[in-house]
């Protein structure tokens, strides 16, 4: 889609700009309704679509960066979280009630929201129980370390919210760009169809608009 839009901008830009710059060409087009004013309208459509395309590229780039940041922060937070989960499984062997409270059984959830909920349950319930923390301390796991791990989890949540924001902005920018491109395409298609008629006896002018007469 992006390639097609780029091609449209190139073709429409050639046709519109050359029409506006050539004073000999303009009277021939004006006979069929494409006056300088109407060509200027086409130029405005082109400028709007081009501007929206630049914005769309910017927003898409920000979305990609936000996703990369989220992945990076989740990987870091998960590395710490899994380390503590493994130690807790050793510390609380044969303690099914604790395993249930800390969510130690089974695989970690794949979705970000599920994984965050699972990790939040682990950190909150573990740090809230003095006896469990005393047992974890024997393995070198302090409440400060767990708090640091929970802070990494908070950063993941913030990065996820930012990613959602960027995704929404990129989606809206794409919608606006595509709508503008559709309007430009309609104008350009009509213009080229008329130009083929208006300049039928002037193939050099058709070529100037990017039209190769068969």
Provide an overview of this structure:
The protein is mainly alpha-helical and 214 residues long. The chain contains eight helices and no strands. The mean pLDDT is 95.
Estimate what percentage of residues fall within beta strands. Answer: under 5%
Helix and strand element order: HHHHHHHH
Radius of gyration: 31 Å
Mean pLDDT: 95
Structural class estimated from helices and strands: mainly alpha
Portion in helices: over 70%
Strand count? 0
Distance between the termini: 27 Å
User: Outline, from the CA principal axes?
Assistant: rod-shaped
Largest sheet: none
Helix run count: 8
Low-confidence stretches: none
Label this structure with key terms.
mainly alpha, 82% helix, 8 helices, 214 residues, single chain
Summarize the structure.
This protein is mostly helical and 214 residues long. The chain is 82% helix and 0% strand.
Describe how the helices and strands are arranged.
Layout lengths: L1 H20 L3 H6 L5 H56 L4 H7 L9 H16 L2 H8 L5 H56 L4 H6 L6
Helix pairs in contact: 1-3, 1-7, 3-7, 5-7
